[in-house]
Amino acid sequence: MKEPIVQTAEDGTKDLDRKILELFRAKQGGTVSGEELSSALAVSRTAVWKHIKSLKELGYQIKAVPSQGYRLLASPDLLIPAEITAGLGTERIGARRLICFRETESTNDVAFKLAEEGAPEGTVVVAESQRRGKGRLGRHWESPPGVNLYCSIILRPPILPQKASQLTFLSAVAVARAVAATTSLQPAIKWPNDVLVEGRKVAGLLNEMSAETEKVNFVVLGVGININMEQTQFPADLRHPASSLAIEAGGTISRIGVTRAFLKALDALYDDYLAHGYEPVRTEWLDRSNMVGRKVRVSFHDSEVSGEVMGIDDDGALLLKLPNGRSERVLAGDVTLL
Amino acid sequence: MDIKDIKSLIKMVTETDITEFELESAEEKIRIKRGIVPEIVHYQAPQSVMAVPQAVPQMAPVAAAAPVSASAAPAAEKGEPITSPIVGTFYRAPAPDAPPYVEVGQVVEKGQVLCIVEAMKLMNEIEAEYRCKILKICKENAQPVEFGDTLFLVERL
CA A295 to CA A338: how far, in whole Å? Predict the structure, then answer.
């Protein structure tokens, strides 16, 4: 089996896992009887036992107490639909289809293929690890198991292809919101979509589009957030300083919490974007970027320019004021804060 | 000639390398002239000029809506253009050390990836919309491209 699917949220039987976990959590460490479980879930006690067994295989510590029932002792911080969808309450993102892999080549590749096959808007693909995590232009995204979030989301926005790069800014804002909501850290966005904490990169985004001349077929938003990765797990040859939320915060962060917060933020932002256009995204991007008024250097293919950041425009272009007083509109390039 | 006819006429002209086109009949005369899009980065009105004597005064907006290739190839060059749907950076290969997606002379199938145009970290794979032969690659790798720029000239097969 090449790509074992852990679970998909479409699969009705897996809803039972979520309900079992909810019942356990409602008891706050207390015992839940097999009878309670089977009547609440409307399945046989044998079926309950099977689900308990599969949860144990996933890493949940569940103790069977003779003649009393089951007790949940500890949960792994596992990215499975039963956990991610609990209390998610999103309109689109992850609402219809959520697929979790234990391991895959690249969540973007999986999502792109699913989108080509007609997967609905809001489909989410998550993997515990990626064998071939992708960055821009064939670069590698380090994807060790069990510590981070690797996630791709399919969107089908009714916009022109020229406007689709606005989603780059939307996804960066969603990551920054999620980090701010689940940690004490202050994330800052660097143009166009790097999310930094204390100047170190904690997330990477790679968006891919399929479009015709006047129509976007779909966009795949790819998001990698370094959550609990340790210093020793980073490759030595990184282009920019990198870190994880746990390193910066000085303690382990709930991956399920960050994932849920991210999907919620993305859902809310996308909803706003469809209703009110790019302006809310642009405004929040400027608020959450540490760039306006800063001096930066932008490196191009074979040249560079320095100046003061004035803002971004409707296309997301970085607006610079050059030392000679002229303004420059930057569409691509590698930005360094001076 | 009504607006619809003129629209399709513009479309027909912009899909070729023709830079100027004139049609005259007993009661009307139409001239379509294609200019060069100035050095800007918006996706807005190309500098098409359409001069039609009085007959159809509401011409101008139609002309403004027609896409025009900024790098219109010299009239002598043959082939159908494949243009960029977005402003961005043109990449001939998926990675700097990878072989290019296509080479001149190569026959590509419908749906085959020809190049990537990247805009603000959004990667857009440009696919062949029909089976064709690559006659010319009009942009250098990692070069900026405008909306509507001709990326390839191809021969439909």
Answer: 5
What average pLDDT does this structure show over A27-34?
A: 90
Q: What are A283-297's pLDDT values in tens digits?
A: 999 999 978 999 999
Phi-psi region of A140 (alpha: psi -120 to 50; beta: other; left: phi over 0): beta
Chain A CB within 8 Å of residue B89 CB? yes
Claim to verify: residue A310 and residue A255 sit in the same structural domain: no
Rounded Cα distance, B156 and A172, in Å: 41
If you search the block for the tokens 């996706």, which residue do you land on?
B43
Residue ranges making up the domain that contains A29: 7-74
- Bridge-partner residues for A207, per DSSP? A221, B122
Percent of chain A with pLDDT over 70: 96
Range of the domain at B21: 3-33
* ipTM summary value: 0.85
pLDDT reported for residue A240: 82
Q: How many CA atoms lie less than 13 Å away from A268 in the CB half-sphere? A: 15
Q: pTM for this one?
A: 0.80
- The tally of domains found in chain A comes to 3
Instruction: Answer whether residue B46 is part of any domain.
Output: no
CB within 8 Å of A152: residues ≥ 6 apart: A107, A108, A110, A111, A112, A124, A125, A220, A221, A222, A223
Residue A194 sits in the same domain as residue A306:
no
- Point out the residue among B83, B142, B147 whose CB comes nearest to the CB of A301: B142
B-chain CB neighbours of A212 within 8 Å are 85
pLDDT band at B59 (very low <50, low <70, confident <90, very high): very low
Of A168, A208, A211, the CB nearest to B120: A168
Q: Give yes or no: residues A265 and A131 share one domain.
A: yes
- pLDDT tens string A211-257: 887 899 999 999 999 999 999 999 888 878 999 999 999 999 999 99
Return the structure tokens found at B11.
Answer: 């479309």
Please check whether residues B28 and B90 belong to one and the same domain: no
